[in-house]
Amino acid sequence: MGSNDPQVLIAGGGPVGLLCAWLLGRQGVRVRVFDNNDGLQDDPRAATTHPATLDLLSEDGLADDMARVGLVAPIFQFWDRPSGELVAQFDHAILARDTAHPFVVQCEQFKTAKLVLERLGKIPNVEVLFGHEVVDVTQRDGAVSVDVRGPDGLRTHTGAWLIGAEGGRSVVRKQSGIAFDGFTWPERFIVLTTPYDFEANRGYCPRSYFADPEAWCNCFKVSADGPPGLWRTVFPTDPAHTEEQLMSDAGVQARLQAFFPAPAPYEVVHRNLYVTHQRVAATFRKGRVLLAGDAAHVNNPIGGMGLNGGIQDAVSLSDKLARVLLNKESDRLLDLYDLQRRTVAVEFVQEQSIANKKRLEASDPDTRRKNLDDLRQIAADPARARQFLLRTAMIASQRRAATIELAEATP
Ligand SMILES: Cc1cc2nc3c(=O)[nH]c(=O)nc-3n(C[C@H](O)[C@H](O)[C@H](O)COP(=O)(O)OP(=O)(O)OC[C@H]3O[C@@H](n4cnc5c(N)ncnc54)[C@H](O)[C@@H]3O)c2cc1C
């Protein structure tokens, strides 16, 4: 490796890869990021950014900027769709002593990525190469190389460390032989985005979850290009239906009307269909290869935990990697990264996101009644409500990660 070579290569310029680049770059680490797209993607995926994550993004006013371009949402609600009952409402204000951000910020992930990319433009030691696809990985003699297909053909780039942050289909993870165990839900999730104002017309708050034995729904608001904003509705789909059926105008209108009957057809500005998995990589570190974000773990979007977990990975990994590179601390810190972040991915994010889905989709009448009674009772008891919110706001998982010591990592 030459003295001007990057110290850290990053596959993937999504929000997690860019955040790693920024957090490392602002400490003086030389970083090169590769992303196969021509620029930032704007498909409607993550928006919900939880208190624990906002607490980590205070540097350089990033969390404040996210709130400025997004929406501040202190409250979320659970509804029983068949009866139309508001079952429970939770206010993050109860976490005022636990976080500097007792609210969620609904900031679309491309906006978060854009805010980070703007900051990267001021850091000369970070290069972001769009239109560059990582196709191969090789580790040897204290270095790691990637073969990258770009506008000039195939080129090899070498660094001291490689972060795989290129999403669930990570080439870095696959090329490194790291298993991605778990399962895939049979139903795909459809996201239908509409300007129809569910708050003004129906009294739903900007983060509303609907339990229904037929088909649950998440309904939440994003600021989009500015007021009045847009509403995203997320539904499960029937595995027997084709993409054409699900995405057709008739299919989209029928789904929205069945769930939220309205006098006129809905204006639908985006429709997206996602295959959804629950998987965690067998390790987040293999030699000089590190995984973060969806490359390391994927989960269903109910509760909005995937990118939050990825951002928390980025903060933990960048801190430890900078200490290894700049302070010459032991690279066992990176084993600690693996242990801390993989533990909470399994114990919290997988468990909570699966429980969130099961709560909304339960069809057995007794189970449904119990689920809804539990929610009512938790919401009515401030001590239980706080414990519940500590988990949903991902504060409990951050606290758990902080209790995992280096001694527990493999020597
Ligand atoms: C409908 C839906 C709603 C969601 N809502 C939320 C939410 O509210 N809150 C939340 O926390 N999470 C949410 N998520 C999850 C969230 O979208 C993901 O966790 C997040 O995108 C992960 O970010 P990432 O940077 O790890 O990966 P990605 O966003 O997938 O970015 C990876 C990047 O790497 C690039 N890439 C891929 N392969 C290569 C390659 N070989 N070489 C170079 N570049 C490559 C990709 O083009 C992409 O730009 C939601 C997901 C869905 C589907």
Task: Compile the SSE list and pairings.
Elements (H helix, E strand, L loop, with lengths): L7 E4 L3 H11 L5 E5 L12 E2 L1 H6 L5 H8 L1 E3 L1 E6 L4 E7 L12 E3 L2 H12 L5 E5 L2 E8 L2 E8 L2 E7 L1 E4 L6 H5 L4 E5 L4 E6 L3 H5 L4 E5 L5 E6 L7 E7 L6 H5 L1 H11 L10 E5 L2 E5 L3 E2 L2 E3 L5 E2 L7 H21 L5 H30 L3 H16 L1 H11 L2 H9 L8
Parallel strand pairs: 1-2, 1-12, 2-8, 5-15, 12-21
Antiparallel strand pairs: 3-7, 4-7, 5-6, 9-10, 10-11, 13-19, 14-17, 14-18, 15-16, 16-17, 19-22, 20-21
The protein binds flavin-adenine dinucleotide.
Structure commentary:
Strand 10 and strand 11 form a beta hairpin. Strands 6-5-15-16-17-14-18 form a 7-stranded mixed sheet, with helices on both faces. It has a 6-stranded mixed sheet with strand order 8-2-1-12-21-20. A 3-stranded antiparallel sheet has the order 3-7-4. Helix 9 runs antiparallel to helix 10. The protein is built from 13 helices and 22 strands. With 411 residues, the protein is of the alpha+beta class. It is globular and about 65 Å long. The protein starts with 7 loop residues before the first strand and ends in an 8-residue tail after the last helix. The longest helix has 30 residues. The structure holds flavin-adenine dinucleotide. The site of flavin-adenine dinucleotide has 36 residues, from helix 1, strand 2, strand 9, strand 14 and helix 9.
Question: Descriptors for this entry?
Answer:
single chain; 411 residues; alpha+beta; seven-stranded mixed beta sheet; six-stranded mixed beta sheet; 22 strands; 36% helix; globular; binds flavin-adenine dinucleotide
